Amino acid sequence: QGILYIVATPIGNLQDCSMRAIQILKQVDLIAAEDTRHSRRLLDQFGITTPLYALHEHNEYHHSQTLTSRLLSGTSIALISDAGTPLISDPGYYLVAACHQAGIVVSPIPGASALISALSAAGMPADRFVFEGFLAAKSGARCKQLEALRQESRTLVFYETPHRIVDSVADMIAIFGAAREVVMARELTKVYETIHRSSLGELFQWLQQDTQQQKGEFVLVIAGAPPQSNEEIPAEAVRIFHLLREELP
Ligand code: SAM
Question: Where is the Tetrapyrrole methylase domain (predicted)?
Answer without folding.
Answer: 4-203
